[in-house]
UniProtKB/TrEMBL annotation:
Organism: Labedaea rhizosphaerae
Metallo-beta-lactamase domain segment(s): 48-219
Coiled-coil intervals, chain numbering: none
InterPro entries given in the database record: Metallo-B-lactamas, RibonucZ/Hydroxyglut_hydro
Membrane-spanning ranges: none
Gene Ontology molecular functions: 3'-tRNA processing endoribonuclease activity
Protein name: Ribonuclease BN (tRNA processing enzyme)
Length: 252
């Protein structure tokens, strides 16, 4: 599997950096994971805007899905748009939320349900097969319906936390994974809210407790010192730790 980062800025886009978005590729299939603010602009620096064979969303906060509306414009009106409906795997609310974001007019929404451009599948705590990937979802600890994923291809496993606070379900998804792509939004301050995000300490602890091979850190907010997050993670996890960067690719 090849993981390419479109954006990795936590909770909001940062200076010159998109919010969450990734491409996961294998066997010529490209799975887009999240489409946060600014990710479509990043994508088009290197690729066709129709590079995706399917999309997967952990949850529906704007920093993970705000660029869905501009993708709809591309898929409806671009002169070289592909035919057919793009498969989208997302929380059950996605079709109604995405159409509301796309069209502010209620009458228009009655006829604009996006089913011309997309085929939606609601996620749940189960395994779905998306192209060459087996994707097992389970619920994350976050204020809305949110999932983390364990994605396997050809004997290699990537676990992606999405947005989550400390969670036994997410820890189970990460068990013995080759690579853990973990959010670490902030440092381990005493006043951080529960069930929202992981600190650097918790991301490192998750990697250690789950026994993963390698830790990729993402979703650090622009106002958090990233070196402090990495120092926290290193104190908990002895394996390789990398802070991911936009437009970089990681062979898994
Ligand atoms: Zn987020
Ligand atoms: Zn979120």
């Amino acid at each position: 599997m090849l993981l390419t980062v479109l954006g990795c800025s936590g909770s909001v886009p940062g200076p010159g950096t998109a919010a969450s978005g990734y491409l996961l590729e294998a066997e010529g299939f490209t799975l887009g994971i999240e489409l946060g603010t600014g990710t479509l602009a990043q994508l088009q620096l290197d690729r066709d805007p129709f590079a995706f064979d399917a999309l997967l969303f952990s949850h529906l906060h704007p920093d993970h899905c705000a660029d869905f509306s501009p993708l709809t414009v591309l898929r409806r009106y671009h002169p070289e748009r592909p035919a057919g409906r793009l498969p989208v795997y997302a929380p059950a609310e996605a079709p109604s939320r995405f159409v509301a974001a796309y069209s502010p007019d209620a009458q228009d929404r009655a006829v604009t349900d996006l089913s011309d451009a997309y085929a939606f599948t609601a996620l749940g705590p189960r395994t779905v097969h998306i192209g060459p990937f087996a994707v097992t979802a389970d619920r994350a600890a976050h204020p809305c319906e949110a999932f983390a994923f364990r994605i396997t291809h050809d004997g290699t496993t990537l676990t992606y936390t999405g947005d989550t606070g400390w969670s036994d379900a997410v820890t189970a998804l990460a068990r013995d994974a080759d690579v853990l792509l973990s959010e670490a939004s902030w440092t381990h301050a005493d006043d951080r809210p529960p069930d929202l995000h992981l600190s650097g300490t918790e991301a490192g602890r998750l990697a250690s407790v789950a026994g993963v091979g390698r830790l990729l850190i993402t979703h650090v907010t622009p106002w958090t010192p990233v070196d402090d997050v990495l120092t926290e993670a290193k104190a908990e996890f002895a394996g390789e730790i990398t802070r991911v960067r936009p437009r970089e690719a990681y062979r898994l």
